[in-house]
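User: I've been going back and forth on whether these two constructs are worth ordering. Before I decide, could you fold them both?

Assistant: Sure. I'll take them in the order you sent them. The first construct and its structure tokens:
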Amino acid sequence: MNKFYRFCFSLMLFVFVTHQVTAQDPFAKPVKIAVFAPLYLNEAFEGSIYKFSKSTLPKTLLPGLEFYHGVMMAVETLAEEGMQAEILVYDSKQTAASLSYLFSSSDFTNTGLIIASITNPAELKLFADQALSKHIPLISATYPNYVGINGNPFFVLINSSLQAHLEGLYKHMQSYYTGNTIVAIRKPGAVENYIQSTITDLNKKTSSIPLKIKWVTLNPATFSATELTTKLDSMANNVVFVASPTEDFGLKVVRTINTASNYRVTAIGMPTWDGIKELDKNDCRNVDIVYSTPFYFLKDGLANEITALYKSKYGSRPSDMVFKGYESTLHFGKLLMKHRHNLVNNLNDKEFVVFNQFDLQPVQSKKVAGKPDYLENKKLYFVKKQNGNVKSVITN
């Protein structure tokens, strides 16, 4: 069986298999974990027959499949360590049974933890409501990084929200660039308005030295290099904050600055920059790059082992979805085993850190008195790149 067929065959098996990690102690009762991933199996299979050509894998399937592979690698690790867990894996996009039906099925009885790779706000709301009604901690392991729920201490957001990133980026700039005039580049848009108002508000309320910020709005389709360079100082180290999550706009700003080689510039960007591979190419290498991310998978030790194993099985390098599936299952699975009846109050236990040191803090609004709206990961990593290579990683 070639690597592509093994890749697809593992996808087909996904709907039929419950993964049991047997306890060393025959009298110990395994914890039960439900994992949801967006596999879209109904689009890929007719019964057990793969619908597409042997060289085709629809893009919609890939993120969920890679997340699932990471989960399965964690299951193997748990088994090797003699841990006690029953892990049920569901396709969150299956058409045969709704999510509501799955949550109410007998298979879901005694579940102590839900781990989900969620794809849209409506799905997120359904997962969050079920977690709250059943008092089961729900780990939102990938996307989205916005919430819109209230009074739910069982919902755990690992992928930090835009608000958390803005607060972190502000503190980072305050720690390292208070001596600079920061040129904040944005484009027209509602999200950009929110970013500017948030940073401006943080600057007004700070008890420390406020930032010196010059806001500049550019038309993303027509702005010229001159519009940017006239805001820079050829005799100083310039700091440019790209206040927009739109990847194309951020990349265009960096490429434009890169052409002005007589200016020294550090460009600080949004968490979306973590996925822009073009920032490592030659047309961006005159610019130092800084961005925030809640996930930093250091490519050594365990990460190298996972990469080697994944390449041997599937003939490709693992994406961040593989690492997220592995980390969320291994880290929170072990925490559930340790804190079986009180996991929600022990989510910040650092005993089983895999790659990232999550700092899960309650987010409180005035909508539901006395209850946090959800728990959010406030731990951020600030990655600095020079000439396309990571030079430093700073934590908040």
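The second construct, handled the same way:
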Amino acid sequence: MLSTTPRFTPALMLRPFRRRDVGALEEAVNESLHDLKPWLPWAQGTYGRHDALQYIKESLNAWNENRAFDFSIRAAGDPSRHLGNVSLWFTSHANKSGEIGYWVRSGSSRQGVCTEATARLLEIAFDELDMHKVTLRIATGNLGSDRVAQKLGFFHEGVLRQEVRVGEEWLDHAAWSLLAEEWRVERARYATNGWV
């Protein structure tokens, strides 16, 4: 099972969720609902304490069952403030492939938080979980998330048509991927840029 020890980058701490994170998660989501709503099925309507608690319970269960690994993103200098989520899960154990998903609260966007957190999660994927390939699926038009994929050297594989329903609309998703051998080349650049 993946260690629950917090991981660090130059500016961030990534750690598994705890039950006491309910209030911080609820606050971050509510600050960001307007920006998340066009892209994510779960960001529709209202988001309350019960929703945050259910998410954390499922996150803890998934971690314990080795299904998915959700990390709370925190500033290293202010670990009480929840900046967003970054998650990793296997899509195929046999093929050693996985997927990453992420979001960052509106007040912390465009500051490199998502790029830095995802760069660190790629270390976990390839070094700790021995994955061969990691993918991102990003709703077309979500330019901020596309920029993260581009900065980290992901390869744009194509578009998955009408992949996810968000509200009443079916969204296409851009498929991005990074192979272990590509990551081994890119990680020196991640360090040079101060992401890991």
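Notes on the second construct follow. Helices lie at 22-36, 49-64, 113-128, 143-151, 180-192. The chain has five helices and eight strands.
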